Amino acid sequence: MNTFGRNFRCTTFGESHGLAVGVVIDGCPPGVPLAEADIQPYLDRRRPGKSPLESARMEPDRVEILSGVFEGRTTGAPIALLVRNQDVRSEDYDTLRDLFRPGHADYTWQAKYGLRDHRGGGRSSGRETLARVAAGAVALRCLAPYGISIRGRVIEIHGATEPEAMEAEIRAALKAGDSVGGIVEVIASGCPAGLGDPVFGKLDAAIAGAMMGIGAVKGVEIGEGFGAARLLGSEMNDPIDADGFLSNHAGGILGGISTGEDIVVRLAVKPTPSIRKIQRTVDTTGREREISVGGRHDPCIAPRIVPVAECMMALVIIDAMLEQAKYRGWEVR
Amino acid sequence: MNTFGRNFRCTTFGESHGLAVGVVIDGCPPGVPLAEADIQPYLDRRRPGKSPLESARMEPDRVEILSGVFEGRTTGAPIALLVRNQDVRSEDYDTLRDLFRPGHADYTWQAKYGLRDHRGGGRSSGRETLARVAAGAVALRCLAPYGISIRGRVIEIHGATEPEAMEAEIRAALKAGDSVGGIVEVIASGCPAGLGDPVFGKLDAAIAGAMMGIGAVKGVEIGEGFGAARLLGSEMNDPIDADGFLSNHAGGILGGISTGEDIVVRLAVKPTPSIRKIQRTVDTTGREREISVGGRHDPCIAPRIVPVAECMMALVIIDAMLEQAKYRGWEVR
Amino acid sequence: MNTFGRNFRCTTFGESHGLAVGVVIDGCPPGVPLAEADIQPYLDRRRPGKSPLESARMEPDRVEILSGVFEGRTTGAPIALLVRNQDVRSEDYDTLRDLFRPGHADYTWQAKYGLRDHRGGGRSSGRETLARVAAGAVALRCLAPYGISIRGRVIEIHGATEPEAMEAEIRAALKAGDSVGGIVEVIASGCPAGLGDPVFGKLDAAIAGAMMGIGAVKGVEIGEGFGAARLLGSEMNDPIDADGFLSNHAGGILGGISTGEDIVVRLAVKPTPSIRKIQRTVDTTGREREISVGGRHDPCIAPRIVPVAECMMALVIIDAMLEQAKYRGWEVR
Amino acid sequence: MNTFGRNFRCTTFGESHGLAVGVVIDGCPPGVPLAEADIQPYLDRRRPGKSPLESARMEPDRVEILSGVFEGRTTGAPIALLVRNQDVRSEDYDTLRDLFRPGHADYTWQAKYGLRDHRGGGRSSGRETLARVAAGAVALRCLAPYGISIRGRVIEIHGATEPEAMEAEIRAALKAGDSVGGIVEVIASGCPAGLGDPVFGKLDAAIAGAMMGIGAVKGVEIGEGFGAARLLGSEMNDPIDADGFLSNHAGGILGGISTGEDIVVRLAVKPTPSIRKIQRTVDTTGREREISVGGRHDPCIAPRIVPVAECMMALVIIDAMLEQAKYRGWEVR
């Protein structure tokens, strides 16, 4: 399934080292002002190669709106967004054609499909997230006039929580030919109460699915999250007075439906699996091999997950907003 | 959305204090032996009132197979399962008609729908999980011959990790008119490699959505989970040799697709929001009030989430198994 | 797939000679007044046994609302409707256990599933339409305050178009141990312009799928339908003046979207396949046999399709109304 | 909804006079040999400008496979197909910016969205079918090794059924500044028995929805179709002997499931609504106007619908084949 969302449906396509990556958005409301300039800044922010601590792949990643916009406004028709791949050095990956990189999708993809595009991870590459970011940028453009904003940041790297210490952890890993994990927090502000559906369509369930669907994410928590397991009910419950909730341990969601408070989510990001350090593995024939993964990789992927996580949050929220709009637009008589 | 799954689609219905709860399963393969006796034990296990530490609601919860089974085998037609409600003391909830219980879905449900069935939480009640367990039992019946088994357990309550200490924490909370949270672990063994789809249909994304969709769950992690944020890549990656993976930090999933190793999931369960302790709240007119939630409630919901989490895991896995069966059944020529 | 609709999702279940038939409606707007008395008249109208020209199966077909309604109004939760089967003479069908009735789903169901509930057609029985009618009655209850009404009628039977002649055709067929086909017309009045989605979600496409999904229907046409193939563009196009459309050759739909004029649909209904006349067939072992289908059958199914077609039309329209409500509820800023 | 299919999901995008039209196919089985050369012939066949009786829009319509194919085989990842628009004379449509063309989607699109891309019909243009044909070509490539073939033809134009008479009807209409309708027949051969699902997922329901979703189609019939309304059961039923069905009045589908016989479908195509003849209409302000539609239009659209209808049939069949593959791949133990 390469489609996300029920109402604001985003179908992504494209491989790391293919011709292009892109997304088709079906269900965007008509009349929203939209131009490439609304999307490009998000792609620029996601783009690697901006610091020595990031993958050195250098591409302009220019987005093109192929459809769905007429005279500067969305028409209600599908919005196709396309980014051509350019800095494609597939030969970097030739040695990996028959090898399973530990911690990567190589083994499982082969088990599933019986064949795979090994170049740069193919479809399972982080480059696919470019399409999600492009779609998320459109969602954010729709949400902005509603006063909804989403901001993410790295709050921990390899146990360090201060900016300088976090950077030091990344440098140390890079130097050691290794990598480090971290924690990303995303907060959505300005969401109305009432978003999300009971039972299987809970807003937190949708967020958890969206976030765990980002490569390298191994955990998701809302509000107090795992900390809630160590609290008493009297500590966890958010009291209410005439002005609203007095605290936000719930992280903005109760019974799967938004309370109107900030929606607070944290993601556990595993260390980048591509490391220079020698690891044991096998090739596609089952023969034991050793591997050192070269090429261009981030020693810590958490910072680059921030814009992706923000955009996935935007996609979840606009989907819930549209679902809720159905009730507002339906007048019971 | 009250439907779960793409291939093994379960639609649940029913309120805590309505006439019945139930589920319709659409997409169960034909020819599977199935009787009420395959489902009842799971409902019995989920049922409250089995210990002084649990809600005292006493119901036989007899399941009836209304359709989809003929001469002891599934036919491929929808399987409707029905459980009538019996021990319904709606009057327990009369005082709650106009009050928002802190930590509950009362406030958000009212914000969403403009009206609600206040009796026992209505549709947002834990009693709805009965339908999920019934569906999960059918899934487990289908999966058993494949050698797939799923087992869950409480591994932590209010910080305690030993059985006696955990029970002590619950007793203490009960005595104090309070409640405690905990952590549940679920492990699926025997799953083949190749389950799950890349990008938005990742197996871990589906699991995260399914688990976060259980009331009171505030966090989900796979394998090392949040611990992965504190590891190096060389510690996190699972090396492979000719016999397979040498460790399982990934928790059985790489790139969103199963590796064939155990799938390991942990859930953070918040303390039951219904507590006798006085809390501040408002009523539906916005007037400030105090509330002490009486009725029959578990001081710790974690143990009762175990069968629900197992069953949700079963539903995710059978759905992925059926999706994968499509590839096996399609022969490229 | 036993689910119909995207927004007003109806999942039906139950076999002709099983315990019950029913439907779960997910997505009904909250706050709609609803009681069993709103649904029962539609079931009574669909019920056989009301005239000597219809199947003699006699059942009260009492509907029970199991969930989703509280204090006389829908809550937004799934509405489960249940009808117990009563007049079940499965022994009538014992001789058919191993025989494929010509014109029936016996052969194809066996080919698909490898086994089947042969009693009264099992899931492929016309009795399944009872669940659709129950769901349609709820849809009609929601649509009525909007001024939308739907009426169907038989306009032709075995070539005859006058009531008396039509009845004579049915009597003649009954006497001959044979059956006759007919044409049903359904008209929806009061629908606003703008319903339906371009491309694959066209309103006429949804209607065509819904109508062709009724057993025994072999053709569907909108407005001029097949007659349009014999017209000039200047005859087919509906001119517009300041008061609106001057004609309705389009049958109320242009480009897949409603115009606001009456939506006019006609269905071709094949003769009931169950006939007493001797037919050639084979049994499940492939041995050639002769068959005369006894039991209780309508010599012409067209009249009984009328309420089913009306209800399917209601389900299509409420689904499109809810989809459109999304746009109304979403305010572009 | 711009997505077609459950298993072989095709999402189309693009407007008549925008930058491009295209489709993303999600769910194509891996390992299928595929190149642009497999798709291009179908686009060439669909392309206008091949005869004086067709629209004179001249474009090479070169398809580009952007993703999902590696080393000549599909990988299981989404296949994005793109065709850039070239011969775009939007100025032809400037006079239509504020006018509703009778018989077109202009009025309804405006009613639905409040704004529209008026150039060449925008998204509701026949040019969108290019994307369907591209997707259908991929489906046909997958189906061919299974021995499944699909062929369509025009069988009637404005009442004429002989090739020469049909052509004469088109020429007469062209000369008169008018247009004519017709009937298209599509036959799928080689389909196995067992395709399609009971109740709402019937194969004929899917076909009817797919065909009625083609612009200008006003009717769909299967097998005897509307003729069945004039038959006796003893005439309509297809007897069976040891070698199979002795006739095919059913058109290859019983109870919504394929019988293994040819699947026979006919479509009623209305006359092209764009005609030079003066028609009455209104503009977007409601003022009465007269209109003569110039530009490049086919006087009869039926011939150009043939490849589109074949491709939609292919999409329905591959979707059902993949659904059925799920059962074959699932081994009940």
UniProtKB/TrEMBL annotation, chains A, B, C, D:
Cofactor(s) this protein requires: FMNH2
Keywords for this protein: Amino-acid biosynthesis, Aromatic amino acid biosynthesis, FAD, Flavoprotein, FMN, Lyase, NADP
Biological or metabolic pathway of the protein: Metabolic intermediate biosynthesis; chorismate biosynthesis; chorismate from D-erythrose 4-phosphate and phosphoenolpyruvate: step 7/7
GO MF, one example: FMN binding
Record-linked InterPro entries: Chorismate_synth, Chorismate_synth_AroC_sf, Chorismate_synthase_CS
Entry's cofactor comment: Reduced FMN (FMNH(2)).
GO biological process entries: amino acid biosynthetic process; aromatic amino acid family biosynthetic process; chorismate biosynthetic process
Enzyme superclass (EC): lyase
UniProt-annotated binding residues for FMN: R123, S124, S125, G255, K270, P271, T272, P273, S274, R296
EC number from the UniProt entry: 4.2.3.5
Signal peptide interval: none
Any single Gene Ontology cellular-component annotation: cytosol
Claim: Repeat is one of the keywords in the record: no
Residues given in the record as NADP(+) binding sites: R46
Entry annotated with the keyword NAD: no
Organism superkingdom: Archaea
Catalytic activity: 5-O-(1-carboxyvinyl)-3-phosphoshikimate = chorismate + phosphate
Alphabetized Pfam families for the sequence: Chorismate_synt
Family: Belongs to the chorismate synthase family.
Function (record text): This reaction introduces a second double bond into the aromatic ring system.
This protein's name: Chorismate synthase
